[in-house]
């Protein structure tokens, strides 16, 4: 089975970008999406700590402790950037003004529920801005591996972990497939090159629908 | 007379009146834009049993983290524990009460506190542990949680520049939670990198009006960086 | 009977100012208070359309259509002024950050209710910011004539007009007296020079208490 | 590509899609900071049955008042009728539905609309006609009204400067309701006095981020003054 690399996942997500999109990218694979914005397109990155128009990492000379992204990394500003308070940043997010949000998850289920911030007794980092992001955005893509290292499906009938948001996820890109959540089912839209539909089925715990127009992913 | 001159003589005076058991709202995101020296003064004073409202709680040896080390904090309202091992340890052991609050809800709670709005509805957190015990109400076919505002006995704020009247300007993403924190303290204490004369700041470009500021002091800042990410200076954009 | 002039009323109110006060002055008599700020004192005027640090009227050369006060009059900015949005301005007001609010009224009653914005069938100008101001401020002084032109008391047992605010007024300065509202009664603190307590009683419909320490107003 | 260039060619394009029965949120306070030319374009189009959300409704022959003259407005949400005789006449006669809303509540309703907050509590208006039919709830021994947010099909906004990406800067008290209006329109149209290239505005000093702006146009403005109050230029402060 040829699962997608992190870079390939980011590349596939980047195909969902549109010219003029304001986009919030979470930490991890979502961050990589910024590297694959098509050349004929402009997108503007929103960083929820209060920056619209996040640029690339700074050179050593450009490093500024007062200019970081939501992952606390030093960044720069793109041309036409603006800075604002956290209240204003989340007014933007909660008000539905961000065109696309890409974020990671531990689990997603057939009802569009997402669990991404907490593993009771094990990992309690806090939700940061993730709950606001999933509640505020219409257009969200979750990126994650299809199954855990132990082979447990992360696409479930019901999330087992505490939720980050309820009924809010419609699109999931895993290392195996691109899926849409609708009517309480996962709809397989695309399978990764070298991955069979049977392999995907085996690793999808929630109900999976394979439409007739399913196709191989082009990266 | 100097009725609007908010400048205090030293950090002791800046944090005078802070007592055990009080609530302190702090600006800052990660280690960016945090009131470093006001935090140090709280550590020096040794005030105990504090409730801290802040997006994060610093790192083990810097920012609000230093108050955890000294067990000065009994409760934290924050969105992210982050890379703070002592925070995580005290939380897991139950020594520290933690009210995990979504980042946008936290920012709005502070703003609402300062703006005389006792509560507001938000979709954030519906159906999650954050919503437990809170009223859920439907507006336009969507469910929302009722969230109450936050006010503090003290607010501690870091700005870039101020005039003596307490008009504040923030710099880049060091702004973050500071403007809301500034509005939500019964006593708002601000430390800045530079204090100028009233009239020197453009009235159209003031981020926080002096009406919110009770005490003002100029400090020097370490500005520690949490994640120093760089690109090589010889790539195409860096030339 | 020697009722106070508008200017004398403004002068008396000005005695309630303190150095460093942020003050919102309504239209009419309250506006005049700005002319009587004691020399050894600084106050900063908040104009609810979005200006803290309102200055005097402009000279012909200084007139700027983009710089007006809440009464839509052209103004200037004082040193140390700041400008902000209406949402921010009322956050300031509603949040209780203004130290003193002075405004006019049609009626006030013994329960601290105030009617100031509407006479049904006759005058419907709208409440503007008055409802926010009376709800947001702890420290409010109402200035008005003690009675109407027809001799009807404006200090009532119950306001007859639609209310601007409920249980919010504690201090009233009329052309005859300075009164405090407490425990459902008007407490006479000061009488204007040349005005008798009997005259004030006759023109006060709501219950009036004359404390032993009542004194003549000094202007 | 120019995905973020919000500049449109003319006023027809700026207001394209406005239809009878829509809700329009307008910035401005009195005649200060009003989108004069966008209002003129609505008059020219003759769109009817509009709901207008604006602090005031101009004067008889300027600002939003011109839409009253042409009976284009069926409902107004405003805090102050002011010195507009036609507004008062249509309201008293019942031709025009008027929802009088306290100024601060109106500003907050617009902000909430843009910020995804469907409703909030405020003490403003408790026990007054504004509170009739609204939920009253007690927080900390004080009564508050539940107020719902406002969104518009269109928002029309006047700013001072913009860059092509729609980042906006307002000037003096012409700011007023414009920043909130800008966030609360499904389509937000902004007219400005000057458009500059992206990068020319200081990112720290942008009042409204371009994310809220859909269409942008440069206009010329009459800026009529409602109350021209002056002091003699020979007094002590004017010398």
Description:
The complex is a heterotetramer, with two copies of chain A (219 residues) and two copies of chain B (239 residues). In chain A, strand 14 (185-191), helix 5 and strand 15 (208-216) form a beta-alpha-beta unit. The model of chain A has no long low-confidence stretch (mean pLDDT 96). Chain A has five helices and 15 strands. Chain A has 219 residues and is an alpha/beta fold. Chain A has helices at 6-14, 29-32, 86-94, 130-136, 197-202; strands at 21-25, 43-47, 51-54, 77-83, 100-104, 107-109, 114-115, 118-119, 123-124, 140-144, 155-156, 171-174, 177-182, 185-191, 208-216. A ten-stranded mixed β-sheet of chain A has the order 4-3-2-1-5-10-12-13-14-15, sandwiched between helices. In chain A, strands 7-6-11 form a three-stranded mixed β-sheet, with no helix packed on it. The two termini of chain A are 17 Å apart. Chain B is built from six helices and 13 strands. Chain B has helices at residues 11-14, 36-45, 65-69, 85-93, 103-114, 178-183, and strands spanning 23-26, 50-53, 73-78, 97-100, 119-122, 136-139, 142-148, 152-158, 161-163, 168-169, 185-192, 194-196, 215-218. Chains in contact: A-B, A-D, B-C, B-D, C-D.
Secondary-structure map:
The complex is a heterotetramer, with 2 copies of chain A (219 residues) and 2 copies of chain B (239 residues).
Chain A lengths: L5 H9 L6 E5 L3 H4 L10 E5 L3 E4 L22 E7 L2 H9 L5 E5 L2 E3 L4 E2 L2 E2 L3 E2 L5 H7 L3 E5 L10 E2 L14 E4 L2 E6 L2 E7 L5 H6 L5 E9 L3
Parallel strand pairs in A: 1-2, 1-5, 5-10, 6-11, 10-12, 14-15
Antiparallel strand pairs in A: 2-3, 3-4, 6-7, 8-9, 12-13, 13-14
Chain B lengths: L10 H4 L8 E4 L9 H10 L4 E4 L11 H5 L3 E6 L6 H9 L3 E4 L2 H12 L4 E4 L13 E4 L2 E7 L3 E7 L2 E3 L4 E2 L8 H6 L1 E8 L1 E3 L18 E4 L21
Parallel strand pairs in B: 1-2, 1-8, 2-3, 3-4, 8-11, 9-12, 11-13
Antiparallel strand pairs in B: 5-7, 6-7, 9-10
